[in-house]
Amino acid sequence: MQPLFLEPVFKERIWGGTTLKKEFGYEIPSEQTGECWAISAHPNGPSVIKNGPFAGMTLDKLWSEQPKLFGNPEEKVFPLLSKILDANMDLSVQVHPDDAYAMDHENGELGKTECWYIIDCKEDADMIFGHSALTKEEFIEQIGNGKWNELLRRVKIKSGDFFYVPSGTIHALCEGTLVLETQQSSDTTYRVYDYDRRDAEGNLRELHLEKAIHVTTVPHQDSDVTPKVEKREGVTVTTFVDSEFFTVYKWEISEKANFCFDDRYLLLSVIDGDGAMIYHGERYPLDKGAHLITPVGFGAFEIEGNCNVIVSHT
C-alpha cells in the first residue's frame, strides 16, 4: 500500500489569475486560472493518480474498480472534492442546492455544502456571506429592484479564517483571496448576481434566479463553527468542522509527528511549507501544493518537516 498522489485539474474562470502558479508552482493553462481541482472524482474534472500501481488511473475509476481502498463504500460516487481557488476578481454572488433539490433538478447530482480555509488574502479583505432579508418576499423584492448593497452581507476576513458554507447560503469570495475549499462532489452553482459582467463573446453571464430563490435559506442562518485545537508532540491539530458531509482539520507540523488512521481514507493538501511522509520505510516528499489520499487500512505513518496540511474525510 502507498499514499495516492494526485495530479490536479485546472479550470479557467473569468475571475481567475496567476496566483496558483506563483504560490504553488503549478503549470496553469492561462492567466485567468481560477480553480485547482486538487482531489476530484467529479466527471467534469477527475484527478489522475501519479504514483504506484494505479498511476494513470482517474480517481473516479479507482473509486469504482478498487473499492477496498475506500472501505467498500455504499456511495456510488466519491463524495468529496478539494479545490484551491484564486479569486483574482470578485466571484459571482451564488448559492448551492441541497442533496434533495439537486437530485430532482440536476440529474442526480449531489448538493453542495462546502467550507473555506483562507490561505491568504489582501489587506482589509472581505467576502459576501449571507443576506439581510427576513422573508422570501423581501428577498425577491430586493433582488428584483437590484438592492444589492442592502441585501448582501459583507464579512471581513483574514488569513487563517475558516467558514462553513451550508447549501442554501448566499456567498461570494472577493478580489484578492486564496482559498482551500472542501465540498461535496458537485459542480452545481446558481448565480444570483454577477456585477453585469460579460463573457469573452460580450454576453452577460447567465443567472439562475428562479432556482436560487427556491434554494436560498431565508432568513440567513450563521453556522456555529468553533475550532478545537489539540497540541501534541510535533503537531498542532485544529478541527474546524465535523459535519454530516465532511470533517476538516489543519495539521501544523513542526519537525516530526506520528499519525495512525486505519478505518477511514484521508484527503491531504499541503498548503504551506514542505516535508515528507515516512511509511513502511519509504519516504514520500510532501512539497507545498501536493495533494494525496491515504487509503483505508493505511495505518501508522510519520510526517517530518515544517508544513501545514489541510486534511478531510467523510
Description:
It is a single chain. With 314 residues, the chain is mainly β. It has 2 domains: 4-215, Sandwich (Jelly Rolls); 228-313, Sandwich (Jelly Rolls). 13% of the residues lie in helices and 43% in strands. It contains 6 helices and 20 strands. It has helices at 19-24, 59-65, 99-105, 136-144, 148-151, 209-215, and strands at residues 4-7, 9-17, 33-39, 48-49, 80-87, 93-95, 114-121, 126-131, 152-156, 162-165, 171-172, 177-184, 190-193, 228-232, 235-242, 247-261, 266-279, 282-286, 291-294, 299-313. The strands form 4 sheets. Strands 1, 4, 14, 15, 16, 17, 18, 19 and 20 form a 9-stranded antiparallel beta sheet that branches. The chain has a 6-stranded antiparallel beta sheet with strand order 2-3-5-12-7-10, with no helix packed on it. A 3-stranded antiparallel beta sheet has the order 9-8-11. β15 and β16 form a beta hairpin. The longest helix is centred in the middle third of the chain and has 9 residues, at 136-144. It is globular and about 65 Å long. The model has no long low-confidence stretch (mean pLDDT 96).
Features:
314 residues, mainly beta, Jelly Rolls, nine-stranded antiparallel β-sheet, six-stranded antiparallel β-sheet, 6 helices
Count of domain modules: 2
Task: Using the CA coordinates, give the radius of gyration.
Answer: 20 Å
What is the second-level CATH architecture of the largest domain?
Answer: Sandwich
The CATH topology of the largest domain is what? Jelly Rolls
What portion of residues belong to β-strands? 35-45%
Please identify which CATH superfamily of the largest domain we are dealing with: Jelly Rolls
Q: Give the helix level as a range of percent.
A: 10-25%
Listing every helix as H and every strand as E from the N terminus to the C terminus, the arrangement reads: EEHEEHEEHEEHHEEEEEHEEEEEEE
Distance between the termini: 21 Å
CATH class of the largest domain: Mainly Beta
Average per-residue pLDDT, rounded, comes to 96
Count of helix runs: 6
- The beta-strand count equals 20
List low-confidence stretches: none
Shape: globular
The biggest beta sheet reads:
9 strands, antiparallel
The helix-and-strand class reads mainly beta
